[in-house]
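Escalated from tier 1: calcium ion holo job.
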Amino acid sequence: MSKPRVLVIEDEADIRELIRYNLEQEGFKVREAPTGEEGIVDARKKLPDVILLDLMLPGIQGLEVCRRLRSMNETRNTPLIMVTAKDDEADIVAGLEMGADDYLAKPFSTRELVARLRSVLRRGPASEAEPRDAVASVGPLEIDARRHEASIDGSALKLTLAEFKLLQALTDNPGRVFTRAQLIRNITGGDTHIVERNIDVHVRSLRKKLADHGHLIKTVRGVGYKIEEQGAETTG
Ligand code: CA
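Tier 2 regenerated the structure:
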């Protein structure tokens, strides 16, 4: 397999070089862009396999870079991980809603970075509300989209339609963080008469039905929810 190509958009040269050095050790091919403008041009021309985008940039800000990358055909579906300041929840939510696939809070370890990159590369582009016909599973949890059935440890779960759709979105994308607004769109198909707080109610009910496995659904504080097996991030 050829080396995955990463475009690193980051204005701080020393951080960029450190990331490049570490990623090259891990078998990635790295291109660097010190500004959002250059990053956008490079992404369109070179079509990287994955983009690492720092949100704190001079000139065009990271969120705007993300928005532009998502609005262009060449980069619409390129996996994108944003790099944020710790606890910058509003930016994280905004970025995820603009189509970023994941985020990393500074400071992060190389191990964490590589695990996230591999994870988004494995998942491929985000497929919000796109129905799949295969059976998706995370640990003991299984979702059969065609039959509209969910089971845990082989026994069927009795779910409402909203709960099923919510669980399906999460299970189809293990490790991916969904904002509440994204989950609402998954449930309603864009008709947002559900308020964000209702998502929390659905999640609470789902966790109850998952009983001993309720912990599979993880709360990402201030951002949303994801589903993940314990330690799944670091084993891939
Ligand atoms: Ca920066």
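The radius of gyration is 18 Å.
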